[in-house]
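The freezer alarm interrupted the setup, so I double-checked each line after restarting. Inputs confirmed:
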Amino acid sequence: MYLAKVYVTLKPTVNDPQGLTIKGALHNLGFASVEDVRAGKYIEVRVKESDPKKAHIQIDEMCRKLLANPVIENYRFDLEKA
Amino acid sequence: MYLAKVYVTLKPTVNDPQGLTIKGALHNLGFASVEDVRAGKYIEVRVKESDPKKAHIQIDEMCRKLLANPVIENYRFDLEKA
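Predicted 3D structure, all chains:
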């Protein structure tokens, strides 16, 4: 059993209205030191797989096919035995 | 300048319809080995602050006040010099 921690972020050149909204809200709350906010997704996927290499290949395929949109998003993931 | 990488996850006892939907979609795509999926948020916050202790306190306050809902969500963050 492996647990993949997947991080999906917008590519740096892509506009991020959610991040801008969070930044505005933080400023309104008095956090004037906030320079920039980028919002992304964090997904934990648990797979029944004993071979870490196979698990890695599967998770990468899941990211490309469903979890991330490769046109506008980057993804990375850590794999740990669970 | 510090960059905080904030991870917000639903508490384990809280129902996660988004995670269940992703799990169903992965099964439909043929990833039968997927056991469980939990969806969360990943937020990068860049703060203009030279003291790491002060940055840590500020980010923690941002999490409690805006980024996470402490009733149903857990949060953690890493702080790195940027």
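Quick read of the result. Residues 2-81 of chain A form a domain with the Mth169; Chain: A , fold (CATH 3.30.1280.10).
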